[in-house]
Every structure is written in structure tokens, then in C-alpha cells.
Amino acid sequence: MAFPILFASGDDLIAHALEEPKDNRVWHFFEHGGIFPNGLSLDLPYTELFAITKFKILILVAAGLVIYLFNRLGKRLTSQGQPKGRLDNLLESLLLMVRDQIARPNLGNKTEQFLPFLWTLFTMILTINLIGMLPAPVFGCANASIAVTAAWAVFTLLFILINGIGTSGFFGWLKGFWIPIDVPILGPIISFLLFFIEFAGVFLRVGVLALRLFANMLGGHITLTLMLTFILMAAKVSLTHHVSIGIASIFGAYVLSFLELFVAFLQAFVFTILSAVFIGTAVHSHDHDDHDHGDHDLNTINSSGHQSAHT
Fold this sequence. Notes:
The chain has one domain (4-310). Helix content is 74%, strand content 3%. It has 8 helices and 2 strands; from the N terminus they run H-E-E-H-H-H-H-H-H-H.
């Protein structure tokens, strides 16, 4: 997890693990009782209307990194026609993965229209997750806060609603949730219940996105932190236990760090692909209606042609 907090007590480590998801205006660099007896922290500026917090700064750092790296990649692709170096090749591979594995299968001919949003979503979430892998409490994972992941969810929801309504109109967008059931008396009732479930599902699915990202990032960080507390807890028992448990804890944290690295990529991928699915559902709902009308017209033409031929 992080080397600075190893100088603190076991209780301080546990307290830090539970405090990490809380975003506040005091940035703790070292806990009390370590190499700094009184700890080391920074009070961030704030007003009655707005406060600068640790996570806000880390998100801005992530945004700066994304803008710098991909702006540099874009300039090189424009001037040289190909990426240069391992980093540029890695960044290009990520963009191609989002385009080919996420956007195209879910958005079809609208891929180019929504690809910039998906690129921004994926790279920002991934960068924030990777910053969370750096030593805490100097750094930290903003996506381990439900407030941050909820903001991502709201941002995605607004994008879905704006484009869904903008594509097919408000009533056309609502019509996409209506599933006609050809059953006497109960048909309209069932259709109304399905309409309510489908409509509410738009908001519930996006809410699940926020909870999924939050739970996975927070759970991994707490696991790593608590694993390191075993070292300090064993020191209170005996030197033998301290050494053996300490080695096991450090090795376990080292191995789990690779798992956390995989989870950082996986959760960015999952959030982006589910967002693409929801966007595709919203903007293509009217296409299905047009397709159904087209089939109806085709059947009418075939029927008329068949009657003419029979005549």
C-alpha cells in the first residue's frame, strides 16, 4: 500500500484505512507518532461556498496527465504518422482497445460521435486508479470515495439522457421503454409495469456503476492497509512472530498490489463498456422503431405485390 504510514501505530493504520474514502480539506502526509511526532499535514484553502480538497487536487493532477500525454501522442501521430516509444504505443493501444472492443460493438455507426466521451471516461478513471496505487497518504485513490464515483455516474447519466432525448426526442425516448403486450385486459397493465421498470432501470444501472467502482477500489486499499497492520500487531507478541509475520505480510501486500493493478484497469474497462452499452441503448431505441416500421411497410408491399400477382 504505502511506505510512509509504516512508521505509524497499528491503530493509526486502521484509522487511516477507514479515513481514506473521506475527502476533506486537511491533507495528512504522515500520521502521529512516526518520524514526525506530531504528524505532518497541510490545511487546504476553503471558503463558505467552495473548498479545495485532497481528492479534487488528485483529480486535477489526473486530468493534467491525461491532457499532456494524449496531446503529445496526438501531435506525434499528426506529424510523424505513428507513435514513438513504448509509452506512446501503450497509449495508442488503450485508445484502439476502447474504440474496437468497447465503442464499435455497442454504438455501431455512431462510434465516432461518442468515442471522445468514452476515451475521456476510460483514461480519467484509469489514471485516478493508478494514482491510487502510489504511496499513501501523500497520494490516494479518489475513486475510493463514493462521492467521486457518484459524480462519474451522474456525469454519465446526463450524457445518456441528453443524447438519448436529443436523438429521438423526449416522447420518442420514452416510447423506447414501452413494450406492448398483446394480452386482453392485462396487456396494458403489464406494459405499464415493464415501462416503469425499464425507465427506473436507467437510473439504477448508472447507480450500480458508481457502487461497483467505489466498492472495488475501496476494498482493495483497505485490504492492503490492514495486511500491513499485522506487522505491528505481531511486534507486540514476540520478535520471532514479528519477523515471520512481517515477511509474510510484506510478500502478501506485494502480490496483492499486482491484483490491485489489474483491478485498476478492469474497473476502468467495466465502467466504460457499461456506459457504452447504456448510451447505445438510448440512442438506438428509435432506430428499432424505424426498423419495425420498415418491416411493416415491407410486409405491406410484399402483400400488395402478392395480391397483384395473384390477380
